[in-house]
Amino acid sequence: MNANRAPCAFCKTKNKRCPKNCEFAPYFPAERRASYESANKIFGSNKIKRMMMLAGEADKHMLATSILKEGDAWTNDSMRGGYGEIQNLLQQIELRRAYLRELEEKINDEKEKTRLHL
Ligand SMILES: [Zn+2]
């Protein structure tokens, strides 16, 4: 890793020096600082640190991604956060299902027309 890299988002937010082997740098890199700061407002750095310490090594990336996504969700929708994203996705699924039903009806109509012309 570059020795002159920017401090990770965790250390930057805590205003600490980010050591070369910082345990948070792989999960909260400097370029995700805005997402991290939003998540920090929700959870606080102590809780984020505790969650990361309790997670198994295999789960740390998933947990960190989830924490950063939660921060983004609240930045994008300050009333509904992650729940708003879920609602938006459910709405998109419903729209696509309606479109699929429409296409299936057209296909069935065409099949019926073809069958009648035989
Ligand atoms: Zn760090």
- Bin the strand percentage: under 5%
Helicity level, as a percent range? 55-70%
Terminal Cα separation, in Å?
A: 70 Å
Overall residue-averaged pLDDT value: 94
What is the number of helices?
5
Unreliable runs: none
The counted number of beta strands is 0
Rg calc: 23 Å
- Characterize the largest beta sheet: strand count, sense, and whether it forms a barrel: none
Word description of this protein:
- With 118 residues, this protein is an all-alpha fold.
- The chain folds into two domains: 1-76, no CATH class; 81-118.
- Helices cover 68% and strands 0% of the residues.
- The chain is built from five helices and no strands.
- The termini are far apart.
- The mean pLDDT is 94.
Keywords:
single chain; 118 residues; mainly alpha; 2 domains; 0% strand; binds zinc ion; LOB; coiled coil
Spell out the blueprint of helices and strands.
Blueprint: H1 9-14, H2 33-43, H3 45-54, H4 60-76, H5 81-116
Helix pairs in contact: 2-4, 4-5
